[in-house]
Amino acid sequence: MTTFPQIPAPAHTQVDSMLSRRFGRETVNYFSSSPLNRLSFLRTEHPFLAAALRHPSTRFVLVKDLAPLTRSSAELFYASYEDVRALVPADYFDLSEEEVLKAYDSRKSSAYPIFLGLDESRREAGLTWKNYSGTPVFGLDVTPRGSEEQQARAGEVIAAMEAQGLTFFKSRVVATFSADEAAVYAQCRALVDWNTRNTFCGTCGHPTISVNAGTKRACPPTDLARSAEGKPVERPACNTRTTISNLSFPRTDPTIIVATLSADGHRILLGRSKRFPPNWYSTLAGFIEPAESVEDAVRREVWEEAGVTLSRVVIHSSQPWPYPANLMIGAIAQVGDPAHESICLEHDPELEDARWFDIAEVKEALCVGVSALGDKPGPEYKEGGLKLPPPTAIANQLIQAAVNADYLGASEAKM
Ligand SMILES: [Zn+2]
Fold first, then answer.
1. Dihedral sign, CA of 42, 218, 322, 59?
2. Tens digit of each residue's pLDDT (9 = 90 or more) over 109-162
3. Cα 24 to ligand 1 centre (Å)
4. In which domain, by residue range, is 166 found?
């Protein structure tokens, strides 16, 4: 029997509300529903960050080339401040953000701890700050980079971790962690990746530094490396310093993914790309383009990829997908007129095949034919049968919702 990690449990599933009666149970997808309270408003409060950095309960998620440090393929390892002291000086947050910007020196480089949030389920022995208590969790990129000195210190941290039998877990997509750890890793991976790929200002082209506890990159106004007569020389003017600019904030790219029902509601439209293993089909997906609503993007993608014209589109649930920075917005859609169901793969040759499957066949595949891309389904699977993505993928949740009609609310789900 193939086993998959549990997707997160919705926190509000037992609450009887008008919305749940009307639209059915809430679905929360893998990589979402982090156990951490992000406390985003404290990211500029350096006294808080300084206390969190050095607190004995504080835990660090370490990544090297985006691979997380683990005890096993199913469990993250949380390092202590002592483990990373060589890379992160204890006074890292002692200067204010303004002072950090003024002290910018392009000759120096340093690792930057990313504040991920407070784990409020671990209050005991945790940090208390104002009304908030829990265990602070930071993400830290230990990939050797920057100055030679910084690279040597990163090497020390890595060697000490590996000497304890821990490994940086390499996987195309991590789908073996518990729901909570998957969400923590997703946040860490997305922020490390974004910081790594945005070391130069998108407006003026000069180097940037990480601020707001790893969630913003700023273009410093001066550089001590270019000082004249003891004073730092101003860097070229850059309007990221004077206007509100999104250039220096992490990016999230929205994509749509959709389970499409036929006009009679008895069939579901699935497609496959050439890179999928034989008989493996999934829901259709694509990027939302500028000035498109979610519903517009769903209708466009389904028409472009399969030639099918949709009528109603409803948003079902969403999934952060940190590879590298997507938000998958899941929808369920239906064709209004059987004449609009004809499949045409000629517009955009992205799919190798798209097909209408009977609900009964899809239900059977959800029981026996589910596998991660490239893995084998369980022993009950019969060769040649339909294969579908695992529950950790929103595609699986959308297909389940469409075939069980449970997005229609408690009264209609049994129809
Ligand atoms: Zn700039």
1. negative
2. 889 999 999 999 999 999 999 999 999 999 999 999 999 999 999 999 999 999
3. 48
4. 31-248
